[in-house]
Every structure is written in structure tokens, then in C-alpha cells.
Amino acid sequence: MYRSTSCNTLRKENAGQSVTLAGWVNSRRDHGGVIFIDLRDREGLTQVVFRPEEHPQVAEASHGLRGEDVIQITGLVSPRLQGTENAKLATGQIEVIASELTVLNKSDVPPFQIDSKVANEDLRLTYRYLDLRRSEMKQNLKLRHRVAKSTRDFLDEQGFLEIETPILSNPTPEGARDFLVPSRLNPGSFYALPQAPQQYKQLLQVAGLEKYFQIARCFRDEDLRADRQPEFTQVDLEASFITAREIQTLIEGLLSRIFKESLGVDIPVPFQRMTYAEAMNRFGSDKPDLRFGVEIVELSDVFAHSQFKVFRSVLDNGGVIRAINAKGAASALSKEQLKKWEEWAKTELGAKGLAYIRLKEGEWESPIVKFFSEEEKKALASKMGFEEGDVLFFGADKPAPACEVLGRVRLKVSELLKLTEGSKELKFLWVVDFPLLQFSPEDNSWVAVHHPFTRPKAEDLELMEKGEFAEVRAEAYDVVLNGVELGGGSIRIHEKELQSKLFAALGIGPEEQQHKFGHLLKAFSFGAPPHGGIALGLDRLVMLLCGADSIREVIAFPKNNRGVDLMTHSPVEVEHKLLRDLSIASTVKKA
RNA sequence: GGAGUCUUAGCUCAAUUGGUUAGAGCGCCGCCCUGUCACGGCGGAGGUUGCGGGUUCGAGCCCCGUAGACUCCGCCA
Questions:
Q1: pTM (two decimals)
Q2: Paired strand residues for A40
Q3: A114-CA/B28-C1' distance, Å
Q4: CATH class of A292-417
């Protein structure tokens, strides 16, 4: 037995007990005579005292201890001397007076100090096993475990079965780039790592499993971000004979359970609901952050008779004039900065421009205000609540791009004015009635907004028959927290004919349908039940719960921005023989 | 594929307008210290300022290139 208890259990009541502890030397305070060691294990810290007058040989040996040495000590739990208690430590009322010391393993001097902040993420990832020794990282992983446990408990209670689906599966015709795995037994053929267990979970519904869930690893070969890794984890679920509303209620229950059991926070249910159309019109985003206002206002009527050429031509071509009011931003935005913002809108957002008006010391400062009539100015001010110190930003374009640009400006305003800084608010939201299809000028075809198995809303089926794809809404929903998409799902198509029609709308002909989705269409012909589901991004959820600003902080061994594991150096070049066995060859030219 | 920020000691950072031998804290090493918990005291080691080039009497600082890290856009059904 290496130890009788952990480093976070001993309290005043344990005084007089003989204990054995094992762990790492967190810090040492060597007074020449008496020596203190903070011993650390996963659970916490305990102060160990080496006293030369009581155990001279052990005390002598303790002089040689250094940070991160792994040791085992046996000793007597004692109350700390009067006035030397440490209120910052859970075990601060006691100390262990060591009578035995075993050095289990010496440590080299670590490349960074375990108990301090390290900014260099490169170094942290290279020595991830040391980085994870820091209590902050341990807390994050513990919380992640807590969330997974709550999820399993809750869904089990709701009658869901945890079922694993294949990691070696097929490439997905649409969507993200796949990771491919060559098949040795089938030369020239490839598996793909799943982007999501989508088809399998639907086939489990056809199989009659009724309620499935999985904490599923998913893979996408796309560029990385603070909130994106090539492999990530989803809480994935699917159920039969269920409505969209029922799935939403289930997820509200799940999130309530998670927040309660991980943070001790009660979140209000049901969540607010908003259609996609409303979210776009009011906030210019399909995942609006509702912790602040700055809503988009329709101004087309104000400028209906405008002589301002830019607005005039936009309106005459079926566009709209809309604006947001950045309340009190005038002092934070100089004329130079406003010009920079305009430049940003043009280059990064592809906007034609970003007109603005700054109201400072009673003056309307703007390159465009001279084109406005007095009536227009009056109506504008009243409609926008435009007051001293405010800045208005205009979007003049077709409704969708106008809102998108203003939505992005809205977020930039929030960032500038620190509207959400220090906020503890949790604004949950369901965004519903997403469009089913979106025209892609790039591919010159319609593409699925969600995925090709998403069910059109019953009342829009007629529009679909007529080919008015842009107007067809989907039985799809996203759950959003503070402007972050936590997850999304939909009711699926369960009829062979309707699924085939949707494939056709996406430009997938009968032959291709059979080739790529024959298994699914066939399955649907054998009595597929109505079904639907959802997937939540576990990494993102845990990141928010931890207050971290990157999912790398809640993943034990993440990859860096270029998809490299700095610790193991993965991915690596492989020997030619390995490639030959797989019947593949690299086209990379060696330098 | 594009934009931005950054790169100085093991770590976190500083270095005035381009000007002496590039500093500090922590860590490390040595000595001293019997109640500390950010222990304290004395002493010490540790630097090709990411790399390459240029401008200059003189470059950590200015210019060009390059590598890497991070953030964002594109992309992510």
C-alpha cells in the first residue's frame, strides 16, 4: 500500500492518526533546521514537517528533496502550532510530522514552474503531462468528467441506451473534409473517420432501439481555431416517435442537470425560443448573444424618398436600409477608428461600405448626413433613440447581407464597450425554423443548411414541391448560450420518397443516391419510424463551464493550430514499406 | 488561401529617441538559517535578443525576407 489517504482529506479531527501519503513535492521551505514540504496529489496539498529533533535521519534526507520529486511519507497528523494555521489550504489546520521518507522517483528540474501561470502554449503542449499537473488543468478535466457523468446519468434515467458506432466508416459526400484511412485488405479503398454518427444513429432508429445516445468522438479535417479541433466530442442522441419540442425539453433537462451538478447553478427553463428569421432580423446572427441589446432597426420607410444616391439605388433594387445604435460609443470611437471599422467591413465582411453617424457635442458627424433631409434626420433620431454620445452604423444591402454585416458590427460594438465583461448571465436560446436549403453560387446548386436528412416543415412541403427551395423551412433547431452554438439537431426524414426528393433537390441523381445512400433509402423502405435528435459540442460546453477561452484547455492532449501534437510529434512521416502495404504512395516531393 | 499580433535568460517580463558590459522577479546551483506556507539572508551560474540579410559610425529597437506560435476571415453539411 502506497498511501492510506489523499493529500486533501486530513482535518483537525484526524490529529493523532498515523498516516502514509504519496505524491509530488509541490514546494519546500528549508529553514536549515525544520523543513516544510507541501505534498501534492490529485486531490490537493498537505504540509509535511521534517523535525531534526524528532527524526534526525529523515530530516537530514529531506534536505535533498526538490520540486516534483515523487515521495512517500509516513507520519503523525498534528494540529498546527497556534498561529501557524493556513486558511488558504483545506488541510491548513494540520500538518504531518514525517517519521519515514521514501523517495519513489527523483525529478529533473521542470521546464516551467508547475504552480505559476505559463503563457507559452507551445511549451505547455510539448510538456502536456507537466501542464496537466497544474491544479487549474486538473479542475478542468474533473469538470469535464462531471459533465460526462451527469449526461450519462440523466440520459440513462430517460431511457436512452449508450451505443457505440463505427469509427471506421464511409466518407461523407457533403460537408467537411474527411480523414481517410486506407484499407490494407481492400487495396485502393478507404474508410473515413466519422464527422458525426449521423447515419448510424438514424439506422439505430430503423432498428427499433428507440432512444440512443453516445459521447461520440468526431473528426473533421478542417483548419483549427480556438474552439475547433480535428477531433472533438459530441453528446449525440437520437430518438423515435419524438417531436422537436420534446427533444428541446429533454435537452433543457440535460443542461439543467449538467449546470446544477457541475457548477451548482440553477438555469431557468424552458429556454427562450426565436425563429431563424427573427434572429437574423433583430441580431444579424443565427446564434445571437442576448446578454445585450443593440438590435437592428428597419429604416427603409424613413429613407423611402431619400435623395441620397447610395440608399436610393439599394432601395430601388429591392434592398433595405437598417442600422444599429452603439449607445455611448462616440468617445471610444475616433474618426480614424470609424474609418478603420469601415475598412474592416469592406475587406473582412465583404460589405460595400459601413456608413456611420457619430453624435458628439450636438454635432452629427458623418460623411453621409449632408444628404439627409431634416425630416429624415428627425425620423431617424426618433426611431433609433439617437442621443448625445451614440454612434449609428448602417447596413444598406439586400436584407440578408445587410443583417449579417450589422450582426458582426454588433458583436464588435459589444467587444469595444465591454458589454458582457464580468457578466455571470446565462442566456440560453432555441433558434428554430432554419431554412432547409441554401443556394451556393460557388457550386451553382442548392446545399443543405443543416444536413441532407433534415425534415422540411410540414407546412412548407408544398413550397418544396413547387421548387421554391429558398422559402422552405426545416424542422431544425440550435441551442445557443451567450452567443455560442452549443448544439443543433432536427427531426429527420423517415420516408424513402421524401428523402429521395431532397437528394434530388441537392442535385444528387438517382444513380448517385443509390451509390452513396442506398443503404439508408433501403432501410427507410422497411418501416422506419419518425425520429429526430440533436448533438451538443461537449468540448465547447465544458469550455464555457470552466470559463476557458479555448477548447484546448479542456482537452487532455489537444493539437495545436496546425493539427500537430507537439508532445508526440503526431502526425509523422511513415516508412515506405508501410505505405506499400496499404497500396498508397505519397505525392509529396522530398526537399 | 488571406489578415493581424507576437517571438529577449529555464519561465514571466523590462530595456527612454537607434548609443556603455541587454536587466528584474521566479526557478536553478552553493553557503547560512528550527515555524514557514510567495519563508528569509549572502553569493553564483545562466543570453548567437527565433533565423537570414540590409541600412547605419553604431541595431533587441529601423527595413526586407524567412520560420514558428496565437487570434480572426475563408473553410467547418
A1: 0.94
A2: A24, A45
A3: 15
A4: alpha beta
CATH for the A12-105 domain, from 3.40.50.720, 3.40.250.10, 2.40.50.140, 3.30.420.40: 2.40.50.140
Contact between A349 and A343 under an 8 Å Cβ cutoff? The reply is no
Closest to A482 (Cα-Cα) out of A267, A296, A297, A327: A267
What ipTM did this prediction achieve?
Answer: 0.93
Distance (Å, whole) CA A585 – CA A485: 40
Domain boundaries, chain A: 12-105, 137-274+428-564, 292-417
> What does A10-49 look like in DSSP terms, one character per residue?
--GGGTT-EEEEEEEEEEEEE-SSSEEEEEE-SS-EEEEE
- Round to a whole number and report the distance in Å from the CA of A539 to the C1' of B73: 23
A169 touches strand B (CB under 7 A): no
* pLDDT by 10-residue block (mean), chain A, 591 residues: 96 97 96 96 96 95 96 97 94 97 96 88 95 95 98 98 96 88 95 96 97 97 96 98 98 98 96 96 95 93 91 92 93 84 83 89 91 93 94 92 93 89 90 94 88 96 93 96 96 97 94 94 97 98 95 96 94 91 84 50
Strand B neighbours among A 545-564, CB < 7 A: 550, 552, 560-562, 564
Give yes or no for CB of A113 within 7 Å of strand B: yes
A123 contact to strand B (CB, 7 A limit)? yes
Nucleotides of B under 7 A from a protein CB: 1, 10-13, 26-29, 32-40, 68-77
Fold of A137-274+428-564: BirA Bifunctional Protein; domain 2 (3.30.930)
